[in-house]
Task: inverse folding
């Protein structure tokens, strides 16, 4: 049996000795204030045993990791109909996300690139009475943790500088793939991205995806077919233009955020969350990528 | 000597017999109300003799033709510095104007595609106290006609459906190639496009570009080098993705608008304006293109 | 325990009732001659127990499935140095494979798109004395089957119509990412694609990839890290522009060929090969995709 | 009246003082041997008066300038049918000529980009018995000069390194827009590009395009409509990705070649040829561009 605590400790020690931590995202001013030398890791196994090292209880901005939660909630609300408005293919191309959207007539490549997540946000707004409140309640429920909350300063900071997201939302609107108005959708979107959670909270919230759709409170939110699909999407599309590299080096489904968080999972085995705010040139946490590669290499627990 | 009146009459008669008038632009609801069977043409020569046929005094929405006037005013204000913010090359590509903007890091291909004209509008706003008033005064001056005005209903109609322009402006903003805020710039832009003029007014306003930069009121607005450049730009970029075709078939610099207007000119010889609201699949007036091709074929007055 | 034979029989029966079989690849004249109503499936588990249904022993042209074998051999020869000449990211874009190659300066997106496989072939040619003979011997070895052979008629047929591959190889050459001359490389490439194998042979040859790199003859050809990476690549890039869809619907690493074959595998559990010559619009076997989706849905044996 | 000799002398003196001559094309080894400090200019007016300065009688490789001659001959052979196989729009995009070809299904943007010129060469081969001989005779005829010839060393040099042209030709073939085989077409194409002419010869050969299609020997090769169209194409597409810039700065139709030659013309007024082997980053002669800009600025003889 694998001694997870020992593995996490080793990873933590290696991380502490690593000087090159990448570059903190500075396009969202509020995120630029974080201490670059933070590092946390937390793992939960199927028996809900918890292992951790470093700053695993410190909360940070989960950013794009929230896209997994909105996708989960949207699938619960409208099921497979969602796939008429967003595709499931990797985006591939680093330089022209908006052009792909133009070329493909307003159907985003997948729900984890920004335009795709904006469409998913639009679905939630159309089907919920109080979208921000109900989504927050949903995340607290699957996390089994009522302390999780938005960071409205971060949300406001993104709104002021989120011109690229405004461009994407308006382009979707021009292709009639946005039902609600741009301001409403982006207000929701900037709030979902501002959710603040620790590695410990993230790993436990993702328990649902290794446990056939059943969360820690034993509510079933997804069919096992839907879990399979979300996990497949995380593997093929979860890491921006580095999805292939992550599958190749780490070999687990996962999702990263520009706040420096990464969650990865092995169905029926474990989920793990890491946090280190410095990013590599593709926008994924530099130390987080190394930590997870080390984890699957040492434990030989990749899905491949 | 060419009998222009006879040529225009012949063109008008041919136009009246043409059933296939193309398709009126319907993405701006206000424009969709125009009578498709209107046709006007007006020509002014160097001696300021006027020739006309059809609905040449009926006013219509000049739309993108206004981009020539904003470019002229911007060159007057900041001169060649303008070219650090917008390029002078044809856009070529029909399907991905925003992607080119992404690829080329926020520098629009030329001042006659929408993103380029939005940058030019931004320049005017930065350098004028009352941009809408001063621009209107400028157009009235070069037109020698104080009755020219905006159509605020058309401007409001475009604002409500102009999501693609909002996408472009936000993308420019994300690349820091927009100094003013998106709403201010687009409010100006939608107003400039809503200018309402007749063929007679347009032809006389463009007199400046065949007369070395000197308008009908004998004010000099451009150096002869600047006139040469604006005319060159009209030739290479004045007709969306059909610029090559227009140069090839008509052989004159010109500019079209989705309201169905086209202005074309022969330096030191004449300017001519046509109007027919139905567009071809490239977004240029169907009958206008045919009329101008007929004009240069019959008179052998192309610049080539 | 899963009764694989029963599952395969059910799949076979469903297949036989399916009228819409897609369209046989006709751009290679020799392939167009195959009977569209063939269907075979074969599964091998970790204990090397074999299960089959339909035309599982009939040989067909494996085409792109051969790219997994050349990649395996190249990794054995030059190891991770290979990744300086070819990337590991999904290609994403359906319409511009050559343009991506231009844009990314001659580095193909991954070893399973044609330009990537041509680079891998070039590596083999540079490192082998008799490339075609040695590669064939390699495949026979991992297959534990000396009857496997090239089909020189198919190879010749592809050579005569393979203009797109000639374009790709010349483009690679222009970027100096091809060491040998175009004719030599493509002669090898067309031969590797012409390999003729049955579902039974394919499933047994892929045993290596579920068994940590150890083939049926108990030779170890790959480290477990390399196996993980090849399997990850099959998942993210194995199905042309439908890789996301296959991961999403089937949830297994795999590789398809335009001859109508598909191989998929579950590490440490089983490999399965299907054959049905009719293709869907993305170029993957229509019935093969359905069969594998049924297999993982019924057995719940996806890796996710 | 303009003193052309004085203007050319001034331009020549300025050129001699210019140190930064750009970079000689080195991808064709044979071209790389030319002396970078050569400079010639030659002008012919409507009365066939000749003016020259510098190395105006030294012969160089005309390269892409030959595309104007093949286009002229092809129009004479099959007329406007040519435009079903090649378009007349600027290519715009600097980075993906082959991708545009893929996207637009094998129809090159215009006859002056390489794929377009390869299609024109294919037309000549299909309609001539001895294509290379007959094309050479045609050029000698419009040049009124029997000493013009191919340089077979240059043609052979291009063949050995012309992988990008091989890629283009094969791509055209894959789209069925090439009737003859790739080798035959490229052999012709490399020969047409290897034509060796002086500025004096080029200017006199282009007399046809300022004289309504009638060459120096008084044979009429083109209708005045065809001349108009070729001149329009030179203006919109004659300078690779710098066509807009050339129209903007110089304001004349023209064509450049990587051998350092440029020809430009003013219909019914004059043609002028320059030669300076160093190229700017867009592949056009650096000093040639400056010389022509000076010429039209000083004489105010642009077509705009």
Result:
């Amino acid at each position: 049996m694998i001694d997870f605590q020992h593995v996490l400790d080793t990873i933590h020690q290696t991380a502490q000795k690593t000087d090159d931590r990448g570059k903190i995202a500075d396009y969202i001013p509020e995120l630029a204030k974080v201490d670059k030398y933070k590092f946390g890791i937390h793992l939960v196994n199927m028996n809900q045993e918890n292992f951790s090292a470093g700053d695993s209880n410190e909360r940070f901005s989960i950013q794009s990791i929230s896209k997994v939660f909105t996708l989960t909630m949207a699938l619960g609300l409208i099921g497979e109909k969602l796939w008429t408005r967003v595709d499931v293919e990797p985006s591939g191309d680093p330089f022209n996300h908006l052009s792909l959207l133009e070329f493909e007539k307003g159907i985003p490549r997948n729900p984890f690139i920004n335009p795709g997540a904006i469409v998913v946000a639009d679905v939630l707004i159309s089907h919920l009475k109080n979208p921000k409140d109900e989504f927050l309640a949903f995340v607290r429920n699957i996390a089994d943790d009522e302390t999780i909350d938005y960071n409205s300063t971060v949300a406001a900071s993104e709104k002021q500088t989120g011109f690229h997201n405004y461009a994407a939302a308006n382009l979707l609107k021009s292709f009639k793939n946005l039902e609600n108005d741009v301001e409403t959708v982006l207000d929701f979107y900037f709030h979902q991205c501002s959710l603040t959670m620790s590695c410990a909270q993230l790993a436990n919230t993702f328990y649902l995806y290794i446990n056939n759709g059943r969360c820690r409170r034993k509510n079933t939110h997804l069919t096992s077919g839907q879990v399979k699909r979300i996990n497949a999407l995380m593997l093929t599309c979860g890491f921006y233009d580095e999805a292939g590299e992550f599958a190749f080096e780490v070999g687990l489904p996962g999702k990263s955020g520009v706040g420096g968080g990464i969650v990865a999972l092995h169905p029926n085995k474990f989920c793990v969350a890491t946090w280190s705010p410095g990013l590599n040139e593709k926008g994924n946490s530099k130390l987080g990528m190394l930590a997870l590669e080390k984890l699957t290499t040492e434990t030989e627990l990749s899905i491949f």
